[in-house]
């Protein structure tokens, strides 16, 4: 067979990753192509904005310039054990080996934290544009909680302070129709009171 044919044959390789170096400007991988061929420090390319560190055993496809097996680039990776399965036509997902995933399903977006914490960081504001937000557990906040912001500006903590300090005029208790002011409530609301309001500050 011609050298051109063998050059084409050697221009593609399929194997499995055995090690990943993610510390430099370009990710470098070690790739086992066969029992007798292992390529080290092979650059791995990915789409801009999509980074990953594939676990050992991930499938990989590499291309080699002019069939030179010392000059390769990994262009695709996958993992048979950890990939999400059963997606229907048009659906998209990102996932890892910890069970975390963002699934753009045909019925809506599903975010699975895999039993791990989720954190939003370094953002001055988060806006959730939805007519209903439902939480199945407790809500805690280091700062104040304010509702109905279009009609009032008091936080729930400020509203509770106003309630605790309010008084009532007591009429007709002295001769001559005098009016006096009652004392504050005997049992003011405190943080943690179960008053049925659905929240506290």
Question: What's a concise summary of this model?
Answer:
Helices cover 8% and strands 30% of the residues. With 201 residues, it is mostly beta strands.
Task: Describe the fold and architecture.
The chain is mainly beta. The protein folds into two domains: about 5-80, OB fold (Dihydrolipoamide Acetyltransferase, E2P); about 85-165, no CATH class. It is about 10% helix and about 30% strand. It has two helices and ten strands. The chain has helices spanning about 5-10, 155-165, and strands spanning about 10-20, 30-35, 35-45, 60-65, 70-80, 90-95, 100-105, 110, 170-175, 180. The strands form three sheets. The protein has a five-stranded antiparallel β-sheet, with no helix packed on it. It has a three-stranded antiparallel β-sheet with strand order 6-7-8, with no helix packed on it. A hairpin with a 2-residue loop joins strand 2 (about 30-35) and strand 3. The longest helix is centred in the last third of the chain and has 10 residues, at about 155-165. The protein starts with a helix and ends in a 20-residue tail after the last strand.
């Amino acid at each position: 067979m011609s050298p051109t044919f063998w050059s084409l044959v050697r221009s593609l390789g399929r194997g499995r990753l055995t090690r990943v170096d993610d510390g430099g400007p370009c990710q470098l991988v070690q790739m086992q192509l066969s029992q007798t061929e292992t390529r080290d420090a092979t650059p791995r390319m990915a789409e801009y904005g999509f980074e990953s560190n594939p676990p050992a055993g991930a499938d990989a496809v590499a291309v080699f310039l002019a069939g030179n097996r010392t000059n390769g680039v990994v262009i695709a990776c996958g993992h048979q054990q950890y990939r999400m399965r059963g997606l229907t036509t048009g659906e998209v997902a990102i996932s890892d080996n910890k069970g975390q995933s963002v699934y753009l399903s045909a019925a809506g977006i599903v975010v699975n934290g895999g039993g791990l914490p989720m954190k939003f960081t370094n953002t001055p504001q988060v806006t959730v544009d939805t007519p209903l937000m439902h939480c199945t557990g407790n809500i805690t906040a280091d700062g104040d909680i304010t509702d109905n912001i279009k009609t009032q500006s008091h936080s729930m903590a400020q509203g509770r302070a106003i309630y605790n300090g309010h008084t009532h005029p007591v009429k007709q208790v002295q001769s001559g129709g005098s009016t006096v002011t009652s004392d504050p409530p005997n049992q003011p609301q405190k943080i943690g009171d179960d008053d049925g309001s659905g929240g506290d500050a």
